[in-house]
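Ticket #4471: structure output looks truncated?

Reporter: J.K.
Steps to reproduce: submitted the chain below (476 residues) through the standard prediction queue, then opened the result file.
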Amino acid sequence: MTVQSRTSVSRRTFVLASAAVLAGPAFSAFPARASAAREYRLAAAPGRVPLVGGDHPETAVWAYNGAVPGPEIRARQGERLRVVVENGLKEETTVHWHGIRVPNAMDGVPHLTQKPIAPGASFTYEFDLPDAGTYWYHPHQRSFEQVGRGLYGPLIVEEREPIAVDREFFWVLDDWRLLPDAQISGDFGNMMDMSHNGRIGNMATVNGCVRDSFEVRSGERIRLRLINAANARTFALDFAGHAPRVIALDGQPVEPHAPAGGRIVLGAAMRADVVIDMTGKPGERFSVKDTFYRGLEYRLLDLVYAAEPLRDRPPDDPIALAPNTMPEPDVGAAERHEVVFGGGMMGNMATAMMDGHRTGMRDMMQHGMAWAINGVVATGHTLEPFLTLRRGSSHVLALHNDTAWHHPIHLHGHSFRVISRNGEPTRYREWQDTVLLNPRDRAEIAFVADNPGDWMFHCHILEHQAAGMMAVIRVT
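Returned output as attached by the reporter:
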């Protein structure tokens, strides 16, 4: 039996030791169904939530339906989804359905795919759900602040035949830059964040609050859907005493396997589905730690075993997921494109094209810009495409991170296979929509350009995107 829950993780507090941070057209591949759509309503508005808990005051946030994360949107593979979004903010907004291969007009990119939703107005998004998996939703209008203040939520598309587990949960991971009074620091868009590692916070939350423990039972099998909703933080989760197996990445099935080095690494916007067998004894306690940043490791929460076991040992049912509907790229016949990400502090980029002019790095930074793709700085969403691809054709993008910083690179409207890293073929050829590039890293991704429209291609460290690391790929 599968049980969905978002409340079994309980209480208390963890604050990172970094006070210094505080100082400083219709998609014809999926025709519309005749059946009625599954409908949800989202209202984006200011609110207050108990992020830290305990004796701390509630935190002023921007939220969907008054909650952080916003409501879980859940549907079945092949269904049609309709979401009415009401804007209760004092500024424009949109909603992007991260990882879902939607028609271009439903992608939620301001001025590129839709007119932004004005304050007091609403917009209805409607699209089919071709693929099962773990996805999420968030704004693309001033996302570095709107997401950073709490506007995001999970979107789960169930498989037609789910795997057998005892319980299923999602953890929406985020970090926050909070002041001593538990309020969000208002220094959004400062140049330090824009040109360095993005807005890294000083407090981590799971499903919108600081957690101390997550209760489990001996002998049970859990499916855990992990979603990284942070502006910039990369999480690397180490489940001490347990052996999680990855069964999906960015919503797409992958051959079940143990994560490299035992850690589940998620750059901003990335997701992973893992199966964890609870092999501890009643009363035992095991820490889940985030160990990505050297010297800044911390305990996220503890797995706490209940006094009564479920069974003697976990089940041994198959955990491999059925494949989704992505068309397989013909890598041998694919057109190849070189894509270079440049800029940032301690980088090699001295000049770039900005607003049609060759501009030095110092002048770029005076205009709030610090990054480029193939030597061009994006100063808004309405860009001329840097690639125009024939619909139905296969392509390989050779990605070069020529910077000193990490970049989770996201392509809208498509998923791609990651086929190599630093010259070596990948073991699992995983399907993803966001690939994490380490500093000076190289990766090759392959996909079929089968979804017509103008699609964003950008770093999902939201400060990097806002400061120029964005481009448009056109499929005709």
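Triage note (M.O.): checked the attachment and the full token line is present. The radius of gyration is 21 Å.
Status: closed, working as intended.
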